Structure formats: structure tokens, C-alpha cells
User: What shape does this take?
Amino acid sequence: MRRVTNPLAAIGLGGLLAGLGDFLFALAYYGTGLRVFQNVTAGLVGREAAYAGGVPAYVIGVVLHFLIATIWAAIYVFTTRMAPSLNRRPIPSGLLYGAIVFYGMNCIVLPLSALRAAAWPPPWAPVPLAMHMLVVGLPIAIVAARSRAA
Assistant: This one.
């Protein structure tokens, strides 16, 4: 992997890698139909409007998905600027961050969205949790660590 030294580039690359990994996981795990990413749009406009939106709602969902991944990457990169020790051990830090992202999305973001998901108790979904650790948190942490090591 090429070394990234600019924090904005680290955020962009981390968000892209995490978004792509989670995108592929979502398609494989939840199905390849339009509904997978229409559900992301539903967080903004509600299920009924998102499902009625067809392909445009799907595209909006994909864009929102990558935007959200990039926001999580930005949070991590800026956190490592305040706690650089996270960069010394990117694998455990990234795995833990993936779990934080999973529970942050399920217990904070989704309940505050138009979906009005239950915030508590936190969901126990071992496969999605593990995949967030591996394909979201880990790439973000590795990119952040490499951006600081330059």
C-alpha cells in the first residue's frame, strides 16, 4: 500500500476502503437487490419514500454509505492526532474501532435517523460486527497509522 501523508488523503482513502469493504459485505450478506442501499436512503427520508424511489434512491444510498464511511474515517484520523498511541498498534485499535462503528451506527445513528431504530439493547449480530471490525475499522486504522509514519 502506498504511504499517504496528508490527513485529508488518509481520511479519503480510509473512507473509500472502509466503504468498499462494507459495500461488498452488505451485498454478499444482505442481498444484491436495490433494497440494501435504499435502506441507507431510508435513514434520511423513511422507508416508504426510499423504496418508492427506485434506482435513484439506491444511488443516493450508495453515496450516503460512502459519505458515512468517510465521516467515520475522519473521526478516527482526527482522534489519532490527539491520541497518537492508537497508531502504534493499528490492528487492535482498528478492530476495536470497527466495533465502535458498528455499535455507534446501531445505537446512535440509526435511532436518530428517519428509521427510528431501537437504541437499546444493542444488537448482537456476530457476523456484521466481525465484518465491521475487519472491513471498516481495520482499513481505517492501517491507513491512519501509515499516514503518520511517513
The CA atoms of residues 45 and 114 lie 6 Å apart. The chain is about 80% helix and 0% strand.
